[in-house]
Amino acid sequence: MRGIRKSFGDVEVLHGVDLDAAPGSVLALLGENGAGKSTLVRVIAGDLHPDAGEIALDGTPHDIRDVATARRLGIRLIYQEISDAPPLTVAENIVLGAWPTRRGFVRNGETRATARRVLGELGVDLPLDSPVGSLRLGERQTVEIARALAGQGRCLIFDEPTAALSDAETERLFEVINGLRGRGVSILYITHRLDEVFRLADEVCVLRDGHIVLHDKVSAVGKDQVVEAMVGRTVERRRRGRDLTAPDGGLPAAGPAAQGPPSDGGSPASGELPAGGDSAAGGGPVLVELAGARSGDAFADVDLAVRAGEIVTLYGKVGSGASEVAEAIFGMHPVDGGTLTVEGRRARFRHPADAIAAGIGCLPGDRQREAMFRSRSVAENLAAPTWRSIARAGTFLTRRSEAVAYGRWHDTLRIRSRNDPEQQIWTLSGGNQQKVVLGRWLERGSRILVLVEPTRGVDVGARQEIYRAIRSLAGRGSAIVVATSDYEDVVELADRAIVMVRGRTVAEFTGDAITVEALTQAAGGVINA
Ligand SMILES: Nc1ncnc2c1ncn2[C@@H]1O[C@H](COP(=O)(O)OP(=O)(O)OP(=O)(O)O)[C@@H](O)[C@H]1O
């Protein structure tokens, strides 16, 4: 690539990018949320047309006008957001866009054979005839990867592929990528995880504000150098533990919950939060409790009690049941065995709206579908207190509360946007969308807060701010449940860490016993820190 420029409206996002990717090599592409990584790879994959610049393959320039042209050239992109067709089957999705046909009829036998071969290469077993819509997020992403491999690409682009994969799926993907390297494929790999860069990549390239600020061999750089290139400053990487010197973790004053009852009257409990101070971990009353809880095939025999001021993490990869337990507290999955007790009262939530009415806040795992109001602005998404209330948006979402929420979280979470509260959320980068949706629940400051993968897709700079905000809410007396597949979340946040494997709790650690080694060993995973 030479001199690639791209603007959206009158905002230039890529300012003349030069980049070379060698055959048989993995190039890791890093940068803060909004730096321009996705825009750059969408240009290469024909999904966006650059305003200026040239792309050449083997020295021959090509005008990559559309995705079909890129595919013919062997360039394939695995999107960050799932772009599959939910009603089609797994096999159909894998050959999507390249159906084997004869005289206009789709050849089902060949479709299934191709799908089976590719899934075999990936070492994954998925039901070929099931609709993709019925699969879990991680499984759907595997379908995306399989689709790219089915296209026999010469240049494969992965956009944060492991974010929703299990340990085993991640290991398999890394094996597949190593295999592709052996076949001379060029691999561009976008990630926010430095450990992946140092494990997998040959070269590392950092984008900052649409400029390349570092491109070198991985063996020639250190982690700190990469982080500094990303954020343009030295990032404080704190060790675990609450910041006792700053009672609010240095945050702006917390959201409306700490200042008085929310304006929609949805949560009677949240106005009673004790003000400020350090965490009451261990000492407060139990606010939420699961006893012998089960939900379908997702999890069983789960006992969990979280006190006011306490952060309990549920650690486990896709399929472990960790996110399902968290989401069950929020009424997204039925508790069909055992009990759920909220503030001393037995709860039977049939819908998230029931949980919200009981004063619970939740950041679900699948934000695109479950938590983002796509056609609304950044400020509206930050201020929207409940899903049910969005229907009454006109009456309560006053400009004032939006402005307050926007002012509070835009800079704290380093949300990269045009600094315009009216900007539509869908025009933000993926990671910045995540920050907005998280900001909504931090703003609400619920008495019970359930967060699924709070740092997924979020850059290193914002990570520490997110940890601070969560600690601060615990310090104000919220009971917080965090389901995560990222051990850093656990080590940074947990007062108590519960490890889950295949729907069961297998270990529990507190205090200094919460280490990366203990977590990964209990989860039966590989230590790749
Ligand atoms: N369709 C669009 N309209 C307007 N602005 C856009 C559009 N798509 C992207 N942008 C802007 O372009 C910039 C770069 O976004 P991009 O998605 O490339 O970032 P990224 O580095 O991939 O971030 P992330 O790590 O969050 O995925 C952002 O400021 C974003 O708001």
TrEMBL record:
SMART domains: AAA. Residues 1-234, 281-527 form the ABC transporter domain. Keywords: ATP-binding, Nucleotide-binding, Repeat, Transport. GO terms for molecular function: ATP binding. It comes from the Bacteria. Residues 237-278 are annotated as: Disordered. This is Sugar ABC transporter ATP-binding protein. The lineage of its organism: Bacteria, Bacillati, Actinomycetota, Actinomycetes, Streptosporangiales.
